[in-house]
């Protein structure tokens, strides 16, 4: 059974408990039947819904603004907007994409401290008021182009904690310099209303948040003393999104909650937001690739005394996505990926390397991993491929992006898109569907369904969210 999420996007309902591997198997078998070797993503939208539930329970004081750059897939953005998550955008195109979903501009923070002038003008035109800054020139730009903006000062977090991707080398005003910057803002008559930070992406030490929140408090007080009406704390991103992360989300959440209660007690009424990216999407996507070529390398024994060289041949597999595509995360995001096969695990394994499809020697996904022997046409899959993968991929060498299949557990889907009572006469007149509708039921002609999106007045209520 399939439901409609808008924009040509259908979601296959899961009605009984199924493993990721079984979903991969189903679609790999479909590709085999259709003689299609294309790589594909399995997107488990229920995983994103579950993440939101955990967030609400674990960080009840913090409103998430999803960082669009992490994965700007339509289904991800549409679902997040429907469950009530807000957005962190960093460019005109990202803002456009989110506004096109019908999201109110007040649900967007333009969280790029160094913005191009034309983008600031666009934000002003579209009424996206909240934006970050960390330098004096930005204040002059905002004064000239959008003087009513609600400004959030991004400070530099402490750098002595371990993170997957450093951000402090590029952004953030040192807390010692905040006073000077705030004076400039005050002299320009600008409206500074909050403080933000980003501890770095893929935070590996929860304490980083505690120290950063404390520093934010100091800057907050400074700004209040200078006469600013401070109403917002933005604790940025950095939350882990997969089981294998060095520290669990819950560990960070408990440190954050404690620091918030100490430095920003609820009684004070300051609005707390965050900009999680990978938290929401990392584990929601699994990438399946096809073995398109293979090379067996028999090792030549160079040294008779070499104790290592006894394992027989080494396998090289070439697959149809790589470092220039979804696996760009290996370079840019310093990610580590883990490969799985559809074969039984008790087969003999060989030392194997996995290579992408482009002609570049750099295009290596895994250098040495034990795998059962594979043939051309076999499938390999990689879990936790939702964050900083497809959003930063290129089509270098003419390699196409993978297809996407969406799944969602039926109960979770129903929580976001409850069955609605439809006025059947109404539906007959409108040759398209609304988000949440069952595809087969609502219309006989799928082509027409996917034609145009409904006019605003044709909407029979909106998704209810939670
Ligand atoms: C990239 C980014 C995020 C998201 O970071 P995650 O580590 O994926 O949570 C949030 N805010 C800003 C300003 C960013 O640049």
UniProtKB/TrEMBL annotation:
Orn/DAP/Arg decarboxylase 2 N-terminal domain location: 45-282
Catalyses which reaction(s): L-ornithine + H(+) = putrescine + CO2
Functional pathway: Amine and polyamine biosynthesis; putrescine biosynthesis via L-ornithine pathway; putrescine from L-ornithine: step 1/1
Keyword Repeat in annotation: no
Pfam families reported in the protein's UniProt record: Orn_Arg_deC_N
GO molecular function per UniProt: ornithine decarboxylase activity
Swiss-Prot/TrEMBL cofactor(s): pyridoxal 5'-phosphate
One Gene Ontology term from the biological process aspect of the record: putrescine biosynthetic process from arginine, via ornithine
Name of the protein this chain belongs to: ornithine decarboxylase
Organism for this UniProt entry: Magallana gigas (Pacific oyster)
Self-association state and partner proteins as the record states: Homodimer. Only the dimer is catalytically active, as the active sites are constructed of residues from both monomers.
GO cellular component: cytoplasm
Residue numbers bearing the N6-(pyridoxal phosphate)lysine modification: 69
Domain of life: Eukaryota
Function: Catalyzes the first and rate-limiting step of polyamine biosynthesis that converts ornithine into putrescine, which is the precursor for the polyamines, spermidine and spermine. Polyamines are essential for cell proliferation and are implicated in cellular processes, ranging from DNA replication to apoptosis.
EC number: 4.1.1.17
Keywords: Lyase, Polyamine biosynthesis, Pyridoxal phosphate
Active-site positions on this chain: 359 (proton donor)
Family label: Belongs to the Orn/Lys/Arg decarboxylase class-II family.
């Amino acid at each position: 059974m399939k439901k409609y999420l808008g924009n040509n996007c259908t979601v296959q309902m899961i009605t009984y408990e199924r493993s990721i591997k079984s979903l991969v198997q189903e679609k790999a078998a479909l590709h085999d039947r259709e003689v299609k070797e294309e790589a594909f993503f399995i997107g488990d939208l229920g995983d994103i819904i579950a993440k939101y539930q955990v967030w609400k329970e674990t960080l009840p004081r913090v409103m998430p603004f999803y960082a669009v750059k992490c994965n700007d897939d339509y289904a991800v953005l549409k679902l997040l907007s429907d469950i009530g998550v807000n957005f962190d955008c960093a460019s005109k195109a990202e803002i456009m994409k989110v506004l096109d979903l019908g999201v109110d501009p007040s649900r967007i923070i333009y969280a790029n401290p160094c913005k191009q002038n034309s983008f600031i003008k666009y934000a002003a035109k579209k009424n996206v008021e909240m934006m970050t800054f960390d330098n004096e020139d930005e204040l002059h730009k905002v004064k000239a182009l959008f003087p009513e903006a609600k400004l959030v000062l991004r400070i530099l977090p402490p750098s002595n904690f371990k993170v997957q991707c450093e951000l402090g080398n590029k952004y953030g005003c040192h807390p010692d310099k905040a006073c000077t910057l705030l004076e400039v803002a005050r002299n320009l008559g600008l409206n500074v209303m909050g403080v933000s930070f980003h501890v770095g992406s893929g935070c590996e030490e929860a304490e980083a948040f505690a120290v950063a929140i404390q520093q934010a408090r100091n800057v907050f007080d400074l700004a209040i003393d200078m006469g600013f009406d401070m109403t917002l704390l933005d604790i940025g991103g950095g939350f882990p999104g997969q089981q294998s992360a060095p520290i669990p989300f819950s560990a960070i959440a408990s440190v954050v909650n404690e620091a918030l209660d100490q430095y920003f007690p609820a009684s004070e009424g300051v609005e707390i937001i965050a900009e999680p990216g990978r938290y929401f999407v990392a584990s929601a996507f699994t990438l399946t690739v096809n073995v398109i070529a293979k090379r067996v390398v028999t090792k030549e024994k160079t040294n008779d005394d070499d104790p290592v060289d006894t394992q027989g041949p080494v396998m090289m597999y070439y697959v149809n996505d790589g470092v220039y595509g979804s696996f760009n995360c290996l370079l840019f995001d310093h990610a580590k990926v883990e490969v799985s096969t559809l074969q039984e695990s008790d087969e003999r394994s060989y030392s194997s390397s996995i290579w992408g499809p482009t002609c570049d020697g750099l295009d290596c996904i895994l250098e040495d991993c034990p795998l059962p022997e594979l043939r051309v046409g076999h499938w390999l899959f990689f879990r936790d491929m939702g964050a900083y993968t497809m959003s930063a991929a290129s089509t270098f060498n003419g390699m196409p992006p993978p297809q996407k299949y969406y799944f969602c557990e039926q109960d979770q889907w129903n929580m976001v898109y409850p069955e609605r009572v439809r006025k059947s006469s109404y539906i007959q007149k409108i040759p398209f569907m609304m988000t949440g509708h069952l595809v087969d039921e609502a219309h006989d002609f799928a082509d027409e369904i996917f034609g145009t999106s409904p006019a605003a007045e044709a909407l029979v209520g909106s998704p209810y969210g939670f």
